[in-house]
Amino acid sequence: MGNYKDPDFQQRKDAAAAAKKGLLQKFVAAAEDPKNAQRQAERVAINEARLIRKTEREAARLKHETELAEELATAAKREAHARHEAEKVATLLAGQNAEREAAIIADKKAERDARYAARKAAKKARLRGY
Q: How far is CA 119 from the centre of its chain?
């Protein structure tokens, strides 16, 4: 059973062409609309401002990284200088400790030699009977 309003091929073709033409006119009208042009201009302006802010942030980041690198370099120099000073102090203290140890050893040797001489003198005195 067919529909009594069954369009033939030509009518369907004309309807499709009219629909396409209507859509095309709609898009042409939308493209020529000043509101769309204004929105597009706003989008372009926003995008340009975004790019400017991005480059400013990048420049600030690079400046910050440069400052950090300089601070790290100065800190490394200070640390190297402090380490060098500490090594000098440690060397000086080691020399002083070595001198002190040598003096202590010399004193102990002198005391030991004095005891030995006293023992030897006491032994001579005992042997001679004085």
A: 74
Which amino acid appears at position 22 of this protein? G
Global pTM reads 0.46
| Residue given tokens 């950090």 in the structure block | 68
**DSSP summary character for residue 130:** -
- Residue 1: its pLDDT value, please? 45
- Give exposure, 52-73, as e/b (b: 16+ Cβ within 10 Å): eeeeeeeeeeeeeeeeeeeeee
Cβ–Cβ under 8 Å, residues 20 and 26: no
Measure the CA–CA gap between 61 and 64, rounded to whole angstroms: 5
Q: What is the C-alpha separation between 127 and 110, in angstroms, rounded?
A: 25
Which H helix or E strand runs over 34? Answer: helix 34-128
CA of 72: how far to CAs of 83, 87, 115, in Å? 16, 22, 62
Write out pLDDT tens, residues 90-128.
999 999 999 999 999 999 999 999 999 999 998 888 888
